[in-house]
Automatic annotation (TrEMBL):
Name this polypeptide is given: Uncharacterized protein
Gene Ontology terms for molecular function: oxidoreductase activity
Coiled coil regions in record: none
Organism: Anaeromyxobacter dehalogenans (strain 2CP-C)
InterPro entries registered for this protein in UniProt: Multihaem_cyt_sf (IPR036280), Multiheme_Cytochr_ET (IPR051829)
Keyword Signal: yes
Extent of the signal sequence: 1-22
Length: 620
């Protein structure tokens, strides 16, 4: 090019408008998201002076990617360092509407999602991209903040990977958030990865073929609203119960055809392969049915040797074995407590009826009065049985748990005689001891169970009449107390409506004081007259002027403006004056108080001299 031509072009460039100069030097218009970087003055925002594009310059604006690249996460973080040149996938200067993301030959739908660290498998491969890359599901805080500031921005970053972030939990939180433990991506049902053997109840026999819904019944409960962008619930009105399903006993699911006559240990005779196939103890029970002692309940599961031997130093015995009483085989689990209570004058009753009980059941100490052959606990001792003891349950006592009155006493275990322990050990039987305290002393004395909330203030009365002199059995707070009859301070007037706690307050130990409460007015009420009317050494006698019906008018007052209340009798026009005309309010220790003493009693103490001294010294 000739020098004159070059100079001409340079001068034209300098003289042309800025937009025209940009067209001369720019390869083409920027895309719409980057159009704010158009122009010669902004080129160095992306192009360092004298150099090509800088990835650091891109990340300075696209801060949401910077940390992901540093941590090696996502598509950009997993790219090899040699391929991290942004312009390889994001081409610029191709026009305003040019798509900045180059998805490759297959386009967006052909993108290999595994390159982003989350391979699409199963049904996920057929889901539309926008279904998962929904701005409402973004879990990355940096991306969420970016979208908050630029709501028009489109991005595939920040999509969650947890199942529960996109899918409504059909199990309503029963089984935790790790859906992949049971479910695959090919189909939600059936749960191909679930193995019942990994649960607390392994399926075997005919249980394997039972439909899930037979044991896991539906719970009718409307599903809550799914989170924004999440899939709606498949079953909105109900869900299957998987947690809290009882399975420890066969009877949790199956009806007992024996009606509990043979106990609850079904597996001792039956197997899951076939209910009608009876094995083991069932055969043994069939033999025992021919004897005088058919096996029932828990006895059916006891090993033959436990009752028949052989034992050390003793051969097996099958005849002549005592069985009429429980104590023929079992040691006294109550270590003699009931024997003392059944003594003459003791607490135990005779049963109302002995029909249908074993021999000896008429004895109040007979085990089968309270315990069954199915199991030792729970005991059959109802409130009606307690009513026949020395202490009848009444009122609120009928709702009290047994253990609150019969607490466990660990010392009872030590009362099993050594001889009994040795005999049980020889027969290979366990030492069973009930630690419940049954032999209670003075059961009719409330203080045997209850702490005295009054701190012995009514000790004499309690010894003579008991707590029930004031308190009922239905409720401790329902009190039969007459203040006029039972106290030295009858309640009258407004005292009748005052709350008990306003006079009877707790002391330093937290015990409400009922005795030693002051009866003088000043013991509860502040002196409204600030001591003006107090007698020397005796304080203010409020009752001299005031009634309990009310402290001031319109309540009646005992005070009359004459002797003996005051030396100044009201007469004439003085009788119609309002009290405050002569008794003004004054401040005493910051409080407004009516002045009653001292007050002037001569005329000139209140009235101006109308005669202006003309009659000074005059005595009529």
């Amino acid at each position: 090019m000739k020098p004159s031509t070059a100079a001409l072009l340079a001068s034209l460039a300098l003289a042309a408008p800025a937009a025209a100069r940009a067209d001369v030097f720019s390869p083409g218009p920027l895309s719409r998201p980057h159009q704010g970087l158009e122009g010669l003055q902004r080129c160095t925002k992306c192009h360092l002076a004298g150099q090509q594009l800088s990835a650091d310059g891109c990340l300075a604006c696209h801060a949401e990617l910077k940390d992901r690249v540093a941590r090696g996460q996502g598509l950009h973080g997993r790219l090899p360092a040699a391929e991290r040149a942004c312009e390889k996938c994001h081409h610029e200067h191709q026009g305003r509407d040019f798509a900045l993301v180059d998805w490759g030959p297959g386009g967006k739908k052909g993108f290999d999602h595994a390159r982003a660290g989350f391979e699409l498998r199963g049904k996920h491969r057929r889901v539309d991209c926008a279904r998962c890359h929904d701005p409402r599901l973004v879990a990355d805080p940096a991306v969420a903040e970016l979208l908050r500031k630029q709501p028009e921005r489109k991005t595939s970053l920040g999509a969650p990977q947890r199942c529960a972030a996109c899918h409504f939990d059909e199990h309503r939180g029963q089984l935790g958030p790790d859906c992949a433990r049971c479910h695959g991506e090919d189909a939600w049902k059936p749960a191909a990865r679930f193995d019942h053997a990994r649960t607390a109840y392994r399926l075997d026999g005919k249980h394997v073929k039972v439909a899930c819904a037979k044991c896991h019944a539906d719970v009718a409960e409307a599903a809550g609203a799914p989170g924004p962008g999440m899939t709606p619930p498949v079953r909105a009105a109900a869900y299957a119960r998987y947690k809290g399903v009882a399975f420890q006993a066969c009877t949790d699911c199956h009806k007992d055809p024996h009606q509990d006559r043979l106990g609850q240990a079904c597996a001792s005779c039956h197997v899951t392969a076939d209910w009608k196939h009876v094995t083991g103890i069932g055969a043994k029970r069939a033999f025992h049915e021919k004897t005088r002692y058919p096996l029932r309940g828990a006895h059916a599961t006891v090993a033959c040797e436990a009752c028949h031997g052989p034992w050390p130093g003793e051969r097996a015995r099958y005849k002549g074995i005592a069985f009429a009483r429980c104590t023929d085989c079992h040691a006294d689990a109550h270590v003699g407590q009931l024997a003392r209570a059944a003594a003459p004058g003791g607490a135990l009753p005779r049963p109302a009826s002995t029909a249908g009980t074993a021999a000896g059941a008429a004895d109040p100490r007979a085990c089968d009065r309270c315990h069954g052959v199915d199991r030792f606990l729970p005991a059959r001792f109802e409130p009606e049985d307690h009513d026949r003891t020395a202490y009848r349950l009444e009122g609120a006592h009928r709702a009290v748990a047994c253990a609150l009155c019969h607490p466990k006493d660990a010392r009872l275990a030590a009362k099993v005689p050594a001889r009994v322990r040795d005999e049980l050990a020889r027969h290979r039987r366990p030492v069973t001891v009930s630690l419940a305290s049954l032999d209670l002393q003075r059961p009719s004395d409330c203080r045997s169970c209850h702490k005295d909330p009054h701190g012995r203030q009514f000790e004499a009365r309690t010894r003579a009449e008991g707590c029930t002199a004031c308190h009922g059995l239905d409720s401790f707070r329902k009190v039969r107390f007459d203040h006029a009859r039972d106290a030295r301070f009858p309640l009258t007037g407004k005292h009748e409506r005052a709350a008990c706690g306003s006079c009877h307050a707790p002391d330093g130990a937290g015990v409400v004081r009922w005795r030693g409460v002051p009866q003088a007015c000043a013991g509860c009420h502040a002196d409204a007259h600030a001591g003006q009317l107090a007698a020397k050494g005796q304080g203010t006698d409020c009752a001299r002027c005031h009634e309990t019906a009310g402290w001031k008018a319109p309540a009646p007052l005992r005070f009359v403006h004459q002797k003996p209340f005051t030396a100044f009798t009201l007469d004439g026009k003085h009788r119609a004056l309002a009290c405050e005309k002569c008794h003004p309010a004054v401040q005493v220790d910051g409080a407004a108080v009516r002045r009653y003493r001292p007050l002037a009693v001569k005329c000139q103490g209140c009235h101006a001299d109308f005669h202006q001294g003309a009659f000074r010294g005059y005595v009529p």
